[in-house]
Amino acid sequence: MQALFAVRNRVTGSYAIAAREAELREAARIAARADELQALRELGTLGQTEPRTGDEAVRDELTRRAGGYVQADIDAWLARALAAHLGHYRDPAAREEAASLLTPPVLTHAALLAELARLVPGADGDQLAFAALLATTEPEAAGALAAFLTRALTPPADHRR
């Protein structure tokens, strides 16, 4: 019986070690991607980069490194990518998962950008910069505006009899 407990303890210990190693690899991946995004933002080319799976955690790492200050450029980059379905956000499952990983202002910003892009196709990020400010300072109003635009831009159902 003691031998069985010893084997079980060894197996349990091996699982714990493997789990810890996986956590360390993920933390290293997040840190490396955060360094990469920081370099891209310093070069002014962040907007030309498509987001990857896990960049929501990278956003959190960059915020942690900045002492908790919101990274407005990273938030705007993620919102634009989410609104335009760029990078891994091409996958509907990734967009759905983002809803639980990103902050409400980022999600509101993305929703507002998506509807404004429908209203004015071809509008660039500079023309829509106000959306980030609105989503950050007045998220409820921005959300209401996005919902209103969705209703206004969605054709009514065909009511033929």
Give structural notes:
The protein has 161 residues and is mainly alpha-helical. The chain is 72% helix and 0% strand. The chain contains 7 helices and no strands. α3 crosses α5 (104-119) and α5 (104-119) runs parallel beside α7. The longest helix has 42 residues, at 2-43. It starts with a helix and ends in an 8-residue tail after the last helix. The model has no long low-confidence stretch (mean pLDDT 86).
Summarize the structure.
By secondary structure, this protein is mostly helical. It contains 7 helices and no strands.
**Looking at the structure, what is the overall shape?**
elongated
Order of helices and strands: HHHHHHH
Distance linking N and C termini? 77 Å
Described by strand count, sense and barrel closure, the largest sheet is: none
Instruction: Point out poorly predicted stretches.
Output: none
State the helical fraction.
over 70%
Overall pLDDT level: 86
